[in-house]
Specification:
Elements lengths: L4 H15 L15 H26 L7 H28 L2 E2 L3 E2 L24 H19 L9 H24 L4 H5 L7 H19 L12 H20 L7 H27 L6 H15 L8 H23 L9 H19 L20 H31 L6 H6 L1 H6 L4
Helix pairs in contact: 2-3, 2-4, 2-8, 3-4, 3-5, 4-5, 4-7, 5-7, 5-13, 7-12, 7-13, 8-9, 8-10, 9-10, 9-11, 10-11, 10-12, 11-12, 12-13
């Protein structure tokens, strides 16, 4: 039965395409579509998509040579699986009619119904709803891909597919709904997350920690990066795509998008230079790997704050996040936690630092849409406390929810490869391919 299950899934999808051809038009009066906004969001959607191949290079260059293809494929496969899920019911779970502010109604946009014509999203009234859905899809794709660095070199590919589907449904979609849907509980609470500090990076970071703990250590823990040049290429693609990730979250070609672009690139630069300077301060050589990791940590940390802070404060966010993540990486190496590519110290901790610093540096003059208040730096405490409470709640939900999903996946299909398969390498044992 297991052998034929994938074919049954494809058959069901094929049948759905005939039963629900998605020809329903939803005309909402006379929307004020803006061609400039549409052009920018089309570009942003493409930019965010390229981040996933960028992540594949970033992670693929860090693992041992015998696991490069497997590691890179774990990112690429998210592009195909999550896209199909999103088109059928995923977008509805994240942005459909709200069930108690926690999750969307899966039937609202089932098979993308009602998304043609003049339909728009409340927060993005100048672009078509279908474009908004395709843009948000790219966030849904990269989030589970981020987790893969934690269990790299020891997970069965078939089991990974099951886990990423469960994670997308039960972790990512609820968090996206709670944070970005107007009726979401975190949105109503006043949480500020411009482009994914909670929804993307914290959820992936805590899931990564849960995965590293659940799958335990590799049998061969010695780490020899296959291609540092891949890491550098991946960093460039991630930084390039992050402009769509953050500046695109303004949902238009406007001044807020410019602010988000500026704060993103300055935070990344500050994170990269701080990481290598901090290493040099402790007697280490400035490395290409350290520069790349620091730059990505800066991007992670600025993500929730990109459209709420000024450029000087983005520099502070990049510097602080790089130091904190560097210290957590150092701490992690002294524990038994085998987070292969330090996803939790970089993405999880970077996302948490960014969330808290949003509560410190957010300025209502930057973004009129910030109705929660100014940050701690300006003498107000309310926003900081809101961010802190959200951080704790999202952390608990993401970590323990991911542990439960890992256990369920393991019961369906064993998560770990055998010791022999691990020695041979996942490229050969899981895919029959090699560099």
């Amino acid at each position: 039965m297991k052998r034929y299950f994938p074919f049954l899934v494809i058959l069901v999808i094929l049948v759905l395409t005939f039963l629900f051809p998605s020809v329903e038009f939803k005309n909402s009066g006379n929307p004020h579509f803006n061609t400039g906004d549409i052009a920018w969001m089309l570009m942003s959607t493409a930019l965010v998509l390229i981040m996933t191949p960028g992540l594949a290079f970033f992670y693929g260059g860090m693992v041992n040579k015998k696991n490069v293809i497997s590691t890179m494929l774990q990112s690429i496969v998210c592009m195909v699986i999550i896209t199909v899920m999103w088109g059928i019911f995923g977008f509805s779970l994240a942005f459909g009619d709200s069930f108690y502010g926690i999750i969307g109604n899966p039937s609202t946009y089932f098979m993308m119904k009602g998304m043609l014509g003049n339909a728009t999203w409340k927060a993005a009234p100048t672009i078509p709803l279908l474009l908004f859905a395709m843009y948000q899809l790219k966030f849904a794709i990269i989030t589970p891909a981020l987790i893969t660095g934690a269990f790299a070199e020891r997970i069965r590919f078939n089991s990974y597919i099951i886990f990423l589907c469960l994670f997308s449904i039960f972790i990512f979609s609820p968090l996206a709904h709670c944070t970005w849907h107007p009726d979401g509980i975190l949105a109503k609470f006043g949480v500020l997350d411009f482009a994914g500090g909670t929804v993307v990076h914290m959820s992936a970071g805590w899931a990564a920690l849960a995965s590293a703990i659940y799958l335990k250590r590799r049998n061969e823990a010695n780490h020899s990066p296959a291609r540092i040049t891949y890491v550098m290429i991946g960093t460039g693609l991630l930084w390039f795509g992050w402009f769509g990730f953050n500046a695109g979250s303004a949902f238009g070609a406007n001044a807020l998008a410019v602010t988000a672009l500026a704060t993103s690139t300055t935070a990344s630069a500050a994170g990269g230079i701080t990481w290598i300077f901090f290493d040099m301060l402790r007697g280490r050589k400035p490395s290409a790997m350290g520069t790349c990791i620091g730059a990505v940590v800066g991007l992670v940390a600025i993500t929730p704050a990109a459209g709420f802070v000024t450029v000087p404060h983005s520099l502070a966010i990049g510097i602080i996040s790089a130091v904190v993540s560097n210290l957590v990486v150092e701490w992690r190496t002294r524990t038994s936690i085998d987070d292969t590519l330090d996803v939790f110290p970089c993405h999880g901790v970077g996302g948490m630092v960014g969330m808290l610093l949003t509560g410190v540096f957010a300025n209502q003059h930057v973004n009129a849409g910030n109705t929660t208040g100014n940050g701690l730096f300006f003498g107000e405490t309310h926003l900081f406390m809101v961010q802190l409470v959200a951080l704790v709640c999202v952390s608990i939900f993401s970590f323990f929810g991911s542990l439960l999903l890992l256990k369920i996946t393991d019961m369906i299909s064993p998560l770990r490869v055998s010791a022999e398969e691990e020695v041979v390498g996942l490229d050969i044992s899981q895919h029959g391919e090699k560099l």
